[in-house]
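tmp note - Riboflavin biosynthesis protein RibD
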Amino acid sequence: MIQFMRRALELATLGRGQVSPNPMVGCVIEHNGRIIGEGWHQRYGEAHAERNAIRSVKPEDEHLLPESTAYVTLEPCSHYGKQPPCADFLIERRIKRVVCCNDDPNPLVGGQGFAKLRRAGIEVETGILNELGRELNARFFTFFERERPYIILKWAETTDGFIAAAGGRPVKISGDLSHRIVHRWRSEEDAILVGTNTARNDNPRLNTRLWPGKNPTRLVLDRNLALSPDLYLLDGTQPTIVYHQVEGQVPTKHSAIIHSFAHSLIDVLQDLHQRRIQSVLVEGGTTLLQSFMDAGFWDEMRVFRSRTMLGEGIKAPAVRGQLIQRDLIGDDELSIYRP
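out:
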């Protein structure tokens, strides 16, 4: 049983960065210890894992479905969205048994998928590798259970603990391989956030030009709308939301840019929740990163430490949380922390 669920979890990860705001889901169809079908949710709006897995079953094996078990990483959906209910499809194909990691926290499902399967006479077992399933879809669970996006704080610092040169002047700290990894991370998250100082000093593009993947929605905190319209952030090339505290109508020359009034980080996170943005990569400076830490709004910290020495400049935030992983990325050390 465990090996089939592990395979379903492995398949689910293949949808990373492609299925949000849906969860990553994998499915394995097993008969008498043999996998006869497998699939995953590949892209938002397209077929879900259960349909892909059953459709992968060879014609000569389809007669085995009524005696087979479907191993699914998340409760099969019971409602119509971009796709029809997966619970109905499993019932139609007369699957004998469904084994699952997690209940779906989405109130549109929330146990109704399992209930529908049981009413149809299908055996249901839940909670298998539950923690691994929650880890896989941490963004999805955070979004529904905490009603905010999953927040990743990321920065690079020198050996002597600086995040930028004196006056906030940008300086290359981490290596090329680390930069490429950051662009991969951007492709995997819904949005990326910076503050006014980073936008002004670094003039970042916040796209995925070093990795083949989708660009995240760009978010910038610009309290007084003081940023120059000539910045890359405001060039209209990808969806951008500017959070500010300026009363009244705010003109914009780009339809891709949304202006939203927000008094605090809580307002920002509530707005992002309403927009169904499930994850945010925060790439700001020390002040912005520290504000998320102080408010307790973070789920991961990803910190690159290089061999570079600056001697003076802007101090990096003090790391918090528990170290869960440490790797060498070229000449850089990457440490990942959780609260």
